[in-house]
Amino acid sequence: MSEHDEHTSFIKTPKQLVIVVLLAFLVPILGIVMLVQFVTDHRTADPSALTPQAVAERLQPVGHVVFAGTPEAAAEGAAPAAPAPTEVAKAGPPDGKKIYEGTCIACHGTGAAGAPKFGNKADWAPRIALGMKTLLDVALHGKGAMPPKGGNPALSEADIRAAIEYMVSHSK
Q1: What is the reported pTM?
Q2: What range defines the domain where residue 155 resides?
Q3: For position 33, what pLDDT does the model report?
Q4: Could you tell me which of 43, 97, 149, 166 has the fewest CB atoms within 10 Å of its CB?
């Protein structure tokens, strides 16, 4: 075999070279044009899909939250709930039991996050020894895992005091 036979090309004439060069440019351009036509083909798209009403319908939330005891809940047939802590706090003199049951029970009922458990004398004794002023200050401003006002900013200082007095009276 000669060296010339090892390096042969399928392009043997200038005419074949011109055809290959033209196809090397035209085939990708033709492919791009066909892809653009396919993507922008308006025959397959629904013309009403971009109307403001159709867009608004597609963007609707999957669901919504309704709190029991609200007018929305009543309209949906939900059972009425106990009064919200904000309602309890505004109705006459503070009722420590209702405030405890509406806000404080979440942590003090179970002892969550180290909260002194309702009625547990051992949990409450060191705190009671600090005095009502310290208990009220901690409840109003929060400490550790306890948020200010037990997480209910609608409660007044009198409401907080009533709830503390209720919990302390059952923990002595």
Answers
A1: 0.47
A2: 85-169
A3: 94
A4: 43
3-state secondary structure (DSSP) of residue 47:
helix
The CATH number of residue 150's host domain is 1.10.760.10
Residues 164 and 98: their CA atoms lie apart, in Å, by 12
Indicate if the alpha-carbon torsion angle 116, 117, 118, 121 is positive or negative.
negative
Average pLDDT, the chain: 80
Q: How far apart are CA 63 and CA 131, in angstroms?
A: 48
| φ/ψ bin of 49: left (φ > 0), alpha (ψ from -120 to 50), beta (otherwise) | alpha
For residues 105 and 160, state if they share a domain.
yes
Q: Are 106 and 112 in contact (CB under 8 A)?
A: yes
Please work out, in degrees rounded to the nearest 5, the angle formed at the alpha carbon of residue 15 by the alpha carbons of 12 and 17. Answer: 65
Whether residue 15 lies inside any domain: the answer is yes
